[in-house]
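#struct-help
A.M.: can someone run this one for me? Single chain, 151 residues.
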Amino acid sequence: MARMHSKKKGKSRSKRPVVKVAPDWVEYPAHEAEELVVKLCKEGLTPTAIGLKLRDVHGVPSVKNVCGKSVVKILKGQKQEIGYPDDILNLIRRAIGMRRHLEKNKQDKHNKTKLIHVESKIKRLSRYYRRTGRLPADWVYDPEKAKLLVK
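D.P.: on it. Structure tokens below:
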């Protein structure tokens, strides 16, 4: 599938296994993996960082395959505060960095174009998250307020 704002076709990387069952070599049963997710959330990690830590340190390849639920659903079931979604925060950080670059380099036309692309992705994602209820219904992307959000 083609990329949205480039002429490239896609990314070459390893694919997840098709089988949706936990492998035999996973040491943690479902309830222990859920306890680890809650413990890592209390340490202040985001859901993405929790999944990476479980994969790299604890040997849990996929939380969803082991527990039957995603990290976000586990945290919602345990009444843990999730905050803003990771993907939109990463895009906001990127847009802030691009704006900071444009303050110093006003003639950088490529960066201006890519900033427009990143901000359109932010607006598109925010529309989706408002519709699904993960963002407040009146949330609007504002570059000045976004600096405070990310800090």
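A.M.: thanks! Helices lie at 30-42, 47-56, 63-67, 71-77, 86-104, 109-132, 143-150.
D.P.: also worth noting: The chain has seven helices and no strands.
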